[in-house]
Structures are given as C-alpha cells and as structure tokens.
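Re: your question about Signal recognition particle receptor FtsY

S., sorry for the slow reply, the queue was backed up all week. Below is exactly what I fed in.
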Amino acid sequence: MSFFKRLKDKFSPSEEKNKEIENQEEQPVQDLEPESNEKENPEAVQFDDGLMSLDEFEEWESEQLGAKFKQGLEKSRENFQNKLNDLLAVYRKVDEDFFEALEEMLIQADVGFNTVMELVDELRMEAKRQNISETSELREVIVEKIVEIYVQDDEDIDRMNIENDRLNVILMVGVNGVGKTTTIGKLAHRYKQEGKKVMLAAGDTFRAGAIEQLKVWGERVGVEVISQKEGSDPAAVMYDAVNAAKNRGADILICDTAGRLQNKANLMNELQKVRKVIDRNVPGAPHEVLLALDATTGQNALSQAKSFKEVTQVTGIVLTKLDGTAKGGIVLAIRNELQIPVKFVGLGEKLDDLQPFDAESYVYGLFADMIDANESVENTTEEADQNDGK
Ligand SMILES: Nc1nc2c(ncn2[C@@H]2O[C@H](COP(=O)(O)OP(=O)(O)O)[C@@H](O)[C@H]2O)c(=O)[nH]1
Ligand SMILES: [Mg+2]
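Result:
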C-alpha cells in the first residue's frame, strides 16, 4: 500500500470512507476490501452491547488524533502545502534547481539547516534510485522521508517514562511564557482521564501569580496542588509535594518551576537543588524532565533548548503553540539538532489540545489535504503524463 494511502486510511474520518464505499460503483478501483474482511473476522473483539469493538475504537481514536493534528497544524499546512504545490508547478523536472528551491522552502519553514541538507540529500538519492524524473512523483517521497528522518531507528522515542506501581515525578522546565503551567494543567487532565491519581507542585514561587494560576488549573482538572507562599524556596515546596504525593499514594506528581534563564548560575543551582530533594525522597526521580518550548519563537526555541541542556538533564520536549505558527518545521529541527525527542505538542488552548507527538500524525497534519486527495494526485500525474506525451 502506498504511504499516502496508509496515512489516509489511518487518519481520515470514516464519513469519507463511507462515501468512498457508496461511490464504489462509479469508481471501480477502490481498495477497501481487506478492511471490511477484517471487520467480519470472528476473532475480532466484538461487544454485543452496542459499544465499539477494540478495532473500531482504535480506528476512531486515530481519526480523532488525525483531526486534532489537522486542526492544530492548519497554519503550517497552508504554508507547507501551498509552497510545495507551487514548487512542483514551477519545477516540473527533477534537477538541481528544484532541489535548491526545495531546500530554500524548508529552511524558511524552520526545519533547520542541517536537517534540510540531510533530507534533501536523501531525496536526491531516492530520486536516482527510483529513476524519478517528474517532481510531482516526488510528492509522496518527500513526506515519507520527513517521517523517516524523524523516527530514524528509534520507534519508542516519544514514549513517556511512566510506570504503574510507583510515584512518577515529572519536572517541567522552560523560560517564562512558553506554556509550562498550561501544559501541566493539560497533562494532569490527560493522566487523570487515564485513571491515574495526579498531584501538582507549585514550584514557580518567583513569578507573581504563578502559584494562583496553577491552583486554578488544579481546580479545573480536579487534582490537588501542593504550594507554599510566593517567594519561598522551591526545593522546600518539592519536599512537601513529594511527601504529600507519597502519603496520598499518587501515581504522578507534576512539578512546576520558575524559568529564569537570564541568570544561568541561579537557575542551575535552583534546578540542581530541586532535583536533589526529589531524588532523595523518590530514588531515580524525576523520571521525566520536560522542557517546554514555544514553537512560535522558531530558532530562538532551539537556542533556549541548548542553554537548558547545559544546566540540567532534559528527557523530552513539549512544543507548545504549534497551532500559532506557520513554521511547523521546527519539530524536525529540534529532533535532529538536539537529539531530544518531542514528547508532546500543544495544538491549542483547550484542555485536550495537548497531544502526544507522533511523526505520522504530524506529517498528516502538515499535508492532510494532499494525503486525503491521494487519488486525485495520482490522476493529475497521469493527466500530466498524457499532456507531456502530446
Ligand atoms: N495557542 C496556544 N496557546 C498556548 C499553548 N500553550 C500555552 N499557551 C498560552 O501561552 C500563555 C503562557 O502560558 P503559561 O502556561 O502561563 O506559561 P509559563 O510561563 O511557561 O508557565 C498562556 O496564555 C497560554 O494559554 C498552546 O499549545 N497553544
Ligand atoms: Mg507558569
């Protein structure tokens, strides 16, 4: 099955699939058979109480995910798709001029210089290997290579280190305004919905109003917030919070911190102290140190990440406000230039707008119309071939 077809099957809403089935008589070459066979498989888990089967649920779940990424990446998609389509229209033949224009386009979308070079080199080789001479035939290869370059050999990169039967501690770091507190609220909501007992630690004692803001999130989500008064020692807050979380048998404790990058030495001391207090009470913790970065700040986000890596160990990135930028290529730059996985992306301001990052959902969000229109793309190519022949 082609890459686009597979993504389309995975993420596109079933209404469209249903329409396809209805239209099948007019369009005889539809390849929907295997899926309908699967549904009739007697081994498949089916409930006779009117609920969805597991297969149906998983299908529904990935369609929801597809819709979320599609919505959240709307600005980037307009940018990526339009520019790529323009490029394919201007440069019909695969040659150096085309590759250079493609490089330019990707760099402008914040993909990051080294990543662009790597990606376009891969494309040059692939075009040679498959003997592709029309740029329109590279469309799918480009999108597929983006996924490959992200995933590399590591399928599990975006998994969170959360285990049952222990207190899991997540430390949230990042400069002011990137979305730490908001992300903590959304994460708490997500884990609570999964049935976990979640608690929060108001470790940003520096910024006025930060404690109150976390408490508001705690109330909204329905989880307990451990706090002290403004200006108190964050390490003392963590000490209280870890003990409270242990006493209450919490599964997950998420800790807010102040992001004072202006003074690196201070920040380093503060984070080291906080980590020490946590580790002393829960050996091995924090299990995750998530760095929040604001996608709309582009290359600046990359330099923040480099600075934070110098002061503390970071296990994952939360890339916030991806919905607010047309330059969604920053995801690839972060992955390739920092070697830190993006574990979550913020796709909006609502509670359920924080989603686990996944390279396929991401490229679906970036190229959804192109992927959904897969058939017509193939037709266009055929038409173009015919026109060329005339
Ligand atoms: N559009 C959008 N806004 C976000 C997202 N995440 C956070 N924000 C907004 O960013 C602003 C700063 O967030 P806050 O959590 O206070 O940042 P902090 O200083 O790092 O704790 C708030 O207005 C949030 O609503 C996101 O994914 N999308
Ligand atoms: Mg905050």
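The chain has 16 helices and eight strands. Residues 237 and 338 are 31 Å apart (CA to CA).

Happy to talk it through on Thursday.
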